[in-house]
Amino acid sequence: MGPAAYTDGMSDPHRPPHNGDAPDPNDDPGTDADAPASAPRDARPAIRLDDVLKLAGIAATGGMAKRLIQGGEVLVNGAVETRRKHLLHEGDEVEVDGEAFVVELSDDEGEPEPDDAP
Q1: pLDDT tens, 51-87?
Q2: In the sheet where 79-80 sits, what is the strand order?
Q3: What would the mean pLDDT of 16-43 be, rounded to a whole number?
């Protein structure tokens, strides 16, 4: 005779069944689909490091940006940064090959300036 089957639809036979009305102490509360989304860690505007290198013309392609970053050739605020998805914020300093620049972000990036003419 095989192991007893649980009737509550659980796939793990080593986890005991629980009362559907009570919270399951084995469940991770952070994975509840009905729970509200957690607040972002930093609500400031941000841009990825690899995107900054492309926009600044330092890297012609994403692959080139990846090689520069993972090769340890990029400094962010004076420290080597090897994560290409590292988020940069207003005022962060990026340095590549001895040339540095400061990140400047605007809320209306890419939007045309309004025409003040009547």
Answers
A1: 999 999 999 999 999 999 999 999 999 999 999 999 9
A2: 79-80, 74-76, 93-96, 99-102
A3: 54
Count, residues in the chain: 118
Residue 81, domain extent: 46-102
- CATH code for position 71: 3.10.290.10
The residue assigned the tokens 């080139």 is 64
H-helix or E-strand spanning residue 79: strand 79-80
In the chain, how many domains are there?
A: 1
Say if 10 falls within a structural domain.
no
Q: Look up tokens 């989304």; give the residue.
A: 37
Encoded tokens for 45: 């505007």
In angstroms, the CA 108 to CA 12 distance is 51
Check: CB of residue 96 under 8 Å from CB of residue 68: yes
